[in-house]
């Protein structure tokens, strides 16, 4: 079952539109650690290389007081950033400005013990191939 949310900095989406249009999320039946392990394995299992893991939840928790906030947004939240040479070449040959969407990200977040896995949405057209790739990876991680 798809759930749509705006996950603050985690959504990583830019441009006009409602929050519901910016991220696709799925509930994960397990711990945050299990979810990050499953996502990492699903990405690597496709022969893709994770360029960076952003520990966004740690950063938000660490800096909250510095920006005058006491609200905890996530117990934990990580974003896995990666690219696919094959898919990226295809979408950028269709429109070189699709470079603006690279690298691609899948996030795992724990809000009050509810773990979710998701990704930002992409515009219609060639970028839907990227969105399908992300959804396939997430579905594999959810199994």
Task: Describe what you observe in this structure.
Helix content is 32%, strand content 26%. It is built from four helices and six strands. The N terminus is likely disordered. The longest helix has 15 residues. Helix 1 crosses helix 4. With 143 residues, it is of the alpha+beta class.
Q: Summarize the helix and strand pattern as letters.
A: EEHEHEHEEH
Count of DSSP-assigned helices: 4
Q: How are strands sequenced across the largest beta sheet?
A: 1-2-6-5-4-3
Helix content: 25-40%
* Rounded average pLDDT: 88
Structural classification = alpha+beta
Strand fraction band? 25-35%
Describe the largest sheet. 6 strands, antiparallel
Shape: globular
Radius of gyration from the alpha-carbon trace, in angstroms: 15 Å
Short description:
This protein is of the alpha+beta class. It has 4 helices and 6 strands, in the order ββαβαβαββα.
Topology:
Blueprint: E1 3-4, E2 23-28, H1 32-44, E3 49-54, H2 56-63, E4 76-83, H3 85-94, E5 104-111, E6 114-120, H4 128-142
Antiparallel strand pairs: 1-2, 2-6, 3-4, 4-5, 5-6
Helix pairs in contact: 1-4
Main traits of this protein?
4 helices; alpha+beta; 32% helix; globular; 143 residues
